[in-house]
Each structure stands twice: as structure tokens, then as C-alpha cells.
Amino acid sequence: MNPSYDLAACRREIPVLQRLIPLANCSHSPLTTATRQALDDYRDSLDQDVMNWDGWMEQVDGAKQEFAALIHAEPDEIAMAPSVTAAVASLASALPLQAERRRVVLSGAEFPSVGHVWLAREPGGVAVDWVPMVQGMPPALEQFQQAVDERTLLVGAAHAYYGNGALQDVAAIARLAHRQGALILVDAYQTLGVRPVDVRAMDIDFLVSGCHKFLMGIPGIAFLYVRRQLIPRLHPTLTGWFGRADIFAFDPTLLDWAPDARRFEMATPPVAAACAARAGLALIRRTGVAAIQEWVLKLSGLLSTECRARGLSISGPQDPAARNGVTALICPGDADEIEDELRGLGVLAAARGQAIRLAPHYFTSPQDLTRALDALTPLLGSP
What we know:
Oligomer: single chain
Shape: globular
CATH architecture of the largest domain: 3-Layer(aba) Sandwich
Distance between the termini: 27 Å
Strand order of the largest sheet: 2-8-7-6-5-3-4
CATH topology of the largest domain: Aspartate Aminotransferase, domain 2
Number of domains: 2
Low-confidence stretches: none
Radius of gyration: 21 Å
CATH superfamily of the largest domain: Type I PLP-dependent aspartate aminotransferase-like (Major domain)
């Protein structure tokens, strides 16, 4: 069993594979030679030039271009932020409330920070309503149909649940929201890099993601997509000098707006993280998201079959096609302790709640999975 690309060549670009099996990609991906080179180049520019803003901003713009291409958007629809939390907060500060439209309907599968941002807006008039999880699964579409009405301003839906990788049909949720005149915000942190996303075809209004999971970057950077037609009517109150029409006007008395998605940016961009993000995004695009999805789905199927054979219980959807590639195994004990023990055995997994998550990626081999399960099975108390 092999992917459609050169797996051996991909693995040579990830030095840590010589001593560890990285299966925590839903939490943090390993460093590639391309990403390391991008960071080394930035460090060299600091050593040699002290500051090189023209060169650094070229990296920032290049990262935006790569992200836009990945999701089938245009670069002027992309804003950069230091985190998804900051990106959502900027967006939340821009949405105009109306007397008849104040409801924000959120899936129970949201990452906590996203929910916290909207809850913090309630004193200003936002009314947050939740579509709850059901037995560890994201809400069904029928639950959204019951929750979204003509009073709804925005619907939030994570593309995949961070706890066990369960996918939500965000395109269907978008259609439902738009029928009621509402907007949709998609958190694609857990899917970009392993699942194709087309914001045009899926009719998505806003999308956020960081880069240090399946996009092979590092922490400290995130992207916000804003549908071009919506930009002119949105004026974020969480703002700064990078959101101005001319960032070099240096006029503290003037509050105008960049004509594109840059109006959602606040301050000096995270240059080092942008360099790494650009390299990681380019690598994913070169490899091909469709090819990665195909390979990860095969690996997830292999994991599911082997887990059942070993008597291990999977949290969430049993069908690998209904997950983002994550296989979350239920732990009878402390999942964090099991994560630590696995690290000592050369396997990087990601604990979350009462589960230990195994998240293969484009560079993972079937042999990696066998070795990981050989290490994990005794820790979970199975024969």
C-alpha cells in the first residue's frame, strides 16, 4: 500500500522521523527541511540586515497567496492574524447587529476559543445559542435546521471536531444558513491539509485556520478568509495600523479602512511564522491535497481495522470517511499520562479528554501505525 506520490522522498524531508513517529498532527506537525530553511533564512536576515521589511513583507504576502490558493480564494480576501482566536475576535467586532438579527448559532463541536469570543460579545447585544453535541458527535443537520431562523446573524461550524475528528457537512450548513439570510463561519483548522476545501463551491462566507497542524507550519499565525462582497460593509472595532488604507499615513486621528481583507489585520505581522507558513503551505499544495486525503483515508481505514482487531475502542464515527483522518481511542485511564509514556517509546500522539488521538499525515507509513499500536495497546490495557 503506497500513496500516489513518492512517500520515501517525503519522509526524507522530515528529520525527526529518524527517531520518532509523529502521529500528533492534529495538534502539531513535525518540522520539515523546507520549513527549517525558511526559518533559517529569516534568522540570517536578522543577523545580516537587522531589519528587511521589504523582504519580510514579501514573505507575508506570499503566505497569504499560498493560503488563498489552497482554499480557492483570492489573496485580497485573506487577512493574517496571530491566532484563530484573534481572527474570530476581529470578525466578531465587525458584524453589524440589527434589532431583528442578533443570534449567533454555534455548533457544540467548536474549539473553546471560538465560543469564548462570541460569549464575550453578549454584553454588546449578541445572543449566543448552541446546537449541542450528541454522544460525542457533532450536531446533525436537522439540529441546525431547528436552531437557525430569520433572527440568526451568523452560524459557526467547525469543519471537524477537534476531539475525535468527526466531520461536519459545512456546505450543507452554509446552504441552510443562507436560506435564512444568515452568514457562516467555518473553522477549518482540523481539516486544511488533509481535506480539500473550496470556499466558492462550499459557499462559505468566512473561514479561519492556523498552520501548525496539518499545514506543516508553526504556531503564531492564522488566516481569515472573508468573502469579497462582504468586505466593504464590515468595519472591525478590534483594529490597528495595519488595517488602515495607507499603513504609512501614521495618523492617529484617522480611522479609515483598507479596501480588502487587510482591514481585519491589527499590527506588525508574525514574520517568522509567516515564513514557515509559506513553506508549509507550498509543500502541501505541491504534494496535492486530494492525494493526501486519499492516503490519509487509507491509513485511517488500516488503523480502524487494526484497532478493532486489538480490542481498542474508537471514539466518534466508526467510518474513517466520516473523520478528518484522526482516530481517537478511548482511554480507561489518564490520557495525558499515556501520551507521555508513548513519547518515551518513540511515538507522538495527542491526548484530548478521555481519548488519545492518532493523526496520520501524508508522510506516515503503514509501518508507523503498526509500531505505534504495538506501543499503545498494552498501555490501554488490551492484550
